[in-house]
Amino acid sequence: MTWTDLARLWLIAYTDAEVAESLAAFSPLLLVPSGKTYVEDEELKKNSQPADPWQLRAEFLKLDPTPEAVVAFLNQWGRWNSEEYVELSEITSLLQAIKEAMTTSPGKWFESLYSLPSNWRRRSEFPYFALLTDKIEVALRMTVTTDLLDQLEFRACARPDCGLPFKVESNHDRKYCSKSCAHVEAVRRSRKAASEKKTQ
Is residue 20 part of a domain? Predict the structure, then answer.
């Protein structure tokens, strides 16, 4: 049911003033794309620049979900999807779903609608399945699906104020997504130990 439908239903039961008062606080944050949408592959290739979807995902996972940061991200990478607008909540929901899929059991991801965008194509040669898109949402979803089908293992960074997923590439018990996070935690442990020593 859309907000328009809901408003119509309320109009039946309430006066105009009551409906206006009820909807006055409703202010969804909508991000409206500009520019043309290309449907055919040749048009898409001609009017787009190639980009690494895994680099896109790495930057998306670090995204601060504020309107300003999301707009800057979209301005850098392009259109979110084919819709006339996207709500900020839709972007943050996918961000959460990707983090969860990469750091917990992949079953929930494969059961969801996120796992397989509808515009993949079958090819007669390797790679047998391909996806050409200028939509951020589609590219993000396919990187996760591809990695999970490849049974890649991910962990969440142990730094409490980070938590970014990172790929497990060896048997080494790596806890942090980067040397930077490992350094921050080492400094914190050192300061905590020094503080505790002073209080003894």
Answer: no
